[in-house]
Amino acid sequence: MTAPVLEIDGISKRFGDNLANDGISMALAKGEVVALLGENGAGKTTLMNILFGHYVPDAGSIRIDGVELPTGTPRAAIRAGVGMVHQHFSLAANLTVLENIMTGTEKLWRLRSGTTGARRKLLAISERFGLKVDADARLGDLSVGEQQRVEILKALYNDARILILDEPTAVLTNIEAERLFTTLRDMARQGLSLIFISHKLDEVMAAADRIVVLRGGRMVAERKAADTSKAELAELMIGRRVTRPVREPSAPGAVVLEARNVGVRIGGVERLQNVGFSLHAGEVLGIVGVSGNGQAPLARLLSGTLARTSGDLLLYGQPVGNLSVADVVDAGIGRIPEDRNGEGAIGEMAIWENAVLERLPAYASAGLVDRKAAMAFAGAIIEQFDVRGGNPASRTRLLSGGNMQKLILGRNLSQRPRILIAAQPARGLDEGAVVAVHARILEARKAGTAVLLISEDLDEVISLADRIQAIVGGRLSPPVVAEQADARQLGLMMAGDWDNGSEVAHAV
Amino acid sequence: MRFERREQRSLLLLVGAPFAAIVVALALSGILIAIAGAPVLEAYRRILIGAFGSRLSATETLTRATPLMLTGLAAAVAFRARLWNIGAEGQFYLGALAVAAFGSQLLAGLPGPILIPVLLVIGALAGMVLILIPLWLRLRFSVDEVVTSLLMNFIAVLIVSMLVDGILKDPLAFGWPQSQSVADHAMLPKLVSRSRLHIGLAIAVVLAFIIAFVQSRTVFGLQSRAAGLNPQGAVFAGVPLSRTLFKVACLSGGLAGLAGAIEVMGVRGYVTTDLSPGFGYSGIVVAMLANLNPVGVIFAALFTAIMFVGADGMSRSLGIPTYIADVTVALSLLTMVVALFFTQYRVRR
């Protein structure tokens, strides 16, 4: 094997308390496709942003062709032949393809831009790699797949030899994704080196020569694609379960919420299909799955912000139509949204306002808000749920993520909900806040609340849930009893292999 | 040097910032006055004299401030909910037109104490009708209301132009394109006798306080603020987004229509296509100067009126173009934006 074109050596990066990268080392050979696999928050994007010069690492070095790359300057990275295709394209919608590609390549004080030369170069590149694109089309008129092609061409136009793609298939349809991987293989054959970031097991197995697995900021494994399997990768990515949680056994009560063949179609795309589950009082039903498989529509459906297009929903045994937010809140369903800052709270409003916004009728008479009662309610939440860093009148934005989550939990749980829909309740929180949130959820379970826990964090689900279902491509697997499931089996379920997995013990 | 978000905003800062902005704006336009060759302090003294030097000028300034307060409130309530109503000018004209039509002929038979409130309501309704078109386009087709509400202004003025040269034309106006006058008993009572100042000023001030109360104390106020600050979060909390925006639009369009109605019933008595020297657009400036605070709108409208009325007097005695008023108001808007930035951020080196 020839000398590596890229060597990453002992890279560490800390954001506050969070060690995003912890001594990561890896190498990339000419003509090789490496997949960087890991869950959300494993440190993949941070590592690539360091490589491309967006972040300065706290420790470690990067060498390209044996020459050390100065950190923190994207310009140096581009000059050294590194190109990056961002998940969110850095292109201007109202410029043409050619203009987009030339942006940043010419000196500002040049009076004439070398359009003719640029067009010739672009055509040559597009022919060489089979990336067909109309140079004069307005970028905004192109499909997402075509826009991505432009982003790739832009990197190649800057003479990139090492191409980094951040979750390239996140925005693509299946056919577009397949076509992209064919192109990537072809580019590798022509001597380019590629790193793509992904958390999808299928595509890393299909497209990569070598797979580097990150977990919690550490590099945990490196495998040749030929020598590994999806199940092994899933286990590596998620980590082996060692500790069993302190979850007291409970006797689940009656079914309080049941879904039968529920489907949601948005803009012609089936976001949820044939979804079925039954949620009992006093149990935690965990929904695991890789991000983007329908968790968001499922949470929104049950939170009252999305309407189903087919199937039946039974609440306390009664069939119900599409529920509005007010219906959901009135029915005693508590909701913890996935996106605390976007949905859970309005940062510029006071804590007391956020405490009562979803149940304003209860804190108002004749259209006037009962500020005194609302303030008292907010004060009670702050005290009971240990929300630190603000009083009822201070702006909610000042709270840390963990304290904001405690506020959201508090406004739901202090009403003793019969059902709690919790989407990623501990995502992005520090360890202490995670423990507090988990304790509250188990406390609610003990008090008889039925909890639907939607989470991408397998640790969390295994430690909290009584039964587990996996969500894949908008479908739900049959439930398994948490005690009988291990990481390997859940990994298979998350990969969608529940139909032929005879080893999967189906629970009633 | 970098900017850092302030954790707490002190009251002194919030109240002081607009005044600091106006002082800086006056200093900057002072440079222009100096370049024009006039004594700066004298010029500003003349502006104050022009605006407040006599009983007549003081009442004129307040008369001028009245429609600005109402269009300023129209912009402030809409912008608070992130509904970008740029169409106050058109809504103003439609309110004025409706009052001229109903107050001169259709309802002129009603007695004054009934006719005046009825006409004010009709004017407000006319303003609402005009804003509902851009609102419907936004809610139904996601069309940007900045563009549509702005374009409605031109349509409204053309409708006025058509009608004052058509069925509403005053036959006694020597061929001038102006509408028939509203009945004498439809005119608003004067606030100060032998002046043009009418009770419209009192109506505007009272409305400002009512709106301030509505915004801070009512369910609707809380919901419209939530809808403006974070639509996604508002939807999650069960705020009916479309219905809230509909109410906000009605309030905003109604205030602008009311401004037009009051201008006709308080000052002119009839409608022409130059009834408004840009009251609708200036309302946007007034609202921004007030940082969308309804009570602040009263003062921002006064400041703007002082500049415009006072600049006339200054121009006559010092020979400086009245455009300096436009420049000062525009500059104060820019300095206000900077001042508001500094109420949110501090400088760290």
Automatic annotation (TrEMBL), chain A:
GO terms for molecular function: ATP binding; ATP hydrolysis activity. Residues 6-241, 257-498 form the ABC transporter domain. Pfam families: ABC_tran. It comes from the Bacteria. The keyword Transmembrane helix does not apply. Gene3D superfamilies: P-loop containing nucleotide triphosphate hydrolases. Keywords: ATP-binding, Membrane, Nucleotide-binding, Repeat, Sugar transport, Transport. Belongs to the ABC transporter superfamily. This is Sugar ABC transporter ATP-binding protein. It comes from Pararhizobium antarcticum.
Automatic annotation (TrEMBL), chain B:
InterPro entries: ABC_transp_permease. It is a multi-pass membrane protein. It is found in: Cell membrane. This is ABC transporter permease. One of its GO terms (molecular function) is transmembrane transporter activity. It comes from the Bacteria. The keyword Heme does not apply. One of its GO terms (cellular component) is plasma membrane. Pfam families: BPD_transp_2 (PF02653). Keywords: Cell membrane, Membrane, Transmembrane, Transmembrane helix. The chain crosses the membrane at residues 12-41, 61-79, 91-108, 114-137, 149-168, 197-215, 283-311, 323-343. Its main location: membrane. Signal peptide: none annotated.
